[in-house]
Design a protein that fits this description.
- Helix content is 32%, strand content 23%.
- The protein is built from 15 helices and 15 strands.
- 49% of the residues are buried.
- The model has no long low-confidence stretch (mean pLDDT 96).
Length: 426
């Protein structure tokens, strides 16, 4: 019997889930309802379902979420709304007796995370947080090398993530540019990275200290570089024509249908200038973390780099591991979801303490995010084999991934180190 799914939030990331159900996993799963603020977006989602041979499904305004659950009685609720509202739909679904699948981040602050944890205890329902990076073969290989103690005890990690002027800039056009919506890049984006460290080490953060600034995006920084011609949004603006940071919402079907045509009933403008004066997130970040295992992490995130990807090194009692990954850049909902985060360069080198260095073979993964997307989707909607790496992320994993970023935000604001145990009661 097919598993029945409803989905709340039908913006750019939502398509990843409902198209997989309607396409690859139509024999095991089916979509039975959509919920969103925008009827235009839900109508487009139904159009895409039909292209896969899946029938249209009932649509519900976001104010009728509970009515949707009562009428459709799904097996699972998929939450892909704006980050700030994840907790609301997760908790309401659990309280009505439903298990939940949520896009990352699970939520954006410690109060909302605590409310989700309390709801899980109260209702006994489950929550999966979809960390696709765990499933990418190169990231799974690091978990295997550390698990097998190839470099012994891991004492320190240096993790440098680069977002470029295409993908990185996109966070400063969208709703993510306001910390009240996304928690900033340390929560919305870095939740992936902090979750990977938790996953690799099989440990959780203990103490966090951080610095952060808005150094490149925003009006003041553009003025420092001599910019004098500003605009509110790209569409219809002469000033945006020659701006490499502007995007054209008419450039592909997804941007046009999900955002430009949906402006009237969503109120959302997708193509804001990255040099506006109302951006409240940072673009330059440095974080130090002490883990329960004793490992020290130094982490940096910069969102205006000439290439996209990361460098990471692990220093242990028996040697060192270095990994370099260059990812294919993209604009969210830009119409090339199969290649989002596809790898252009990947390498893992092991440097044993008393032996010759060697390169580690990495399985080639097809699909988005380094090959992690198809594996995750199969685990969610298909028939998955036993996973020796335990890549499925629970609500506790979801909470512990965001708490590094939440603590870092607090540290930036206060200038003090933050203890994770002071933020949440598990």
């Amino acid at each position: 019997m097919k598993k029945r799914y409803v989905q709340v939030g039908t913006g750019g990331r939502a398509r990843f889930f409902y198209e997989a159900i309607a396409g690859t996993y139509h024999e095991t799963s089916e979509v039975v309802g959509f919920c969103d603020i925008s009827q235009t977006r839900m109508d487009f989602a139904n159009t895409l379902l039909e292209r896969h041979g899946h029938p249209k499904v009932p649509t519900y305004h976001y104010t009728k979420f509970d009515q949707m659950l009562d009428e459709l009685k799904p097996d699972f609720v998929i939450v892909t709304t704006v980050d700030r509202s994840h907790h609301d739909y997760i908790i309401r679904a659990m309280e009505k007796g439903y298990d939940v699948i949520s896009e990352k981040p699970m939520t954006i602050d410690e109060e909302k995370a605590q409310a989700i944890i309390d709801a899980e205890k109260r209702t006994g329902r489950s929550l999966r947080v979809t960390f696709n990076y765990r499933y990418a073969p190169h990231n799974t290989k690091i978990r295997e090398l550390i698990r097998d103690r190839v470099i012994g005890d891991v004492f320190s990690i240096h993790f440098e993530w680069l977002l470029n002027t295409e993908h990185g800039a996109d966070y400063f056009r969208r709703w993510h540019r306001n910390k009240v919506n996304s928690g900033g890049l340390l929560v919305h984006k870095s939740t992936h990275h902090f979750d990977l460290v938790n996953f690799w080490l099989n440990s959780y953060p203990k103490t966090v200290f951080a610095f952060g600034d808005l150094n490149f995006y925003g009006m003041k920084n553009a003025e420092k570089r001599g910019v004098t011609d500003f605009y509110y949004r790209s569409t219809g603006s002469p000033a945006a024509k020659d701006d490499p940071f502007a995007i054209d919402l008419n450039s592909n079907e997804e941007l046009r249908e999900l955002y430009l045509k949906a402006e009237a009933d969503s109120g959302y403008i997708r193509d804001r200038s990255v040099f506006s004066d109302d951006i409240s997130i940072e673009d330059t970040l440095g974080v130090t973390v002490k883990y329960q295992s004793g490992t020290i992490l130094t982490y940096s995130l910069n969102a205006y780099m000439p290439w996209e990807g990361f460098n990471i090194s692990f220093n242990g009692s028996k040697g060192r591991i270095e990994m370099k990954v260059v990812e294919k850049s993209y604009i969210n909902a830009g119409g090339d979801k199969e290649n989002e985060g596809a790898l252009e360069v990947k390498s893992i080198m092991v440097y044993p303490m008393f032996d010759a260095p060697y390169e580690v073979a990495i399985e080639d993964g097809e699909g988005g995010h380094g090959g992690g997307d198809p594996i995750l989707l199969n685990e969610l909607f298909g028939v998955a084999d036993h996973d020796p790496f335990n890549r499925a992320a629970s609500h506790i994993d979801g909470a512990m991934s965001i708490l590094t970023g939440v603590a870092a935000n607090q540290s930036i604001a206060s200038g003090l180190a933050v203890q994770i145990k002071d933020l949440i009661d598990l």
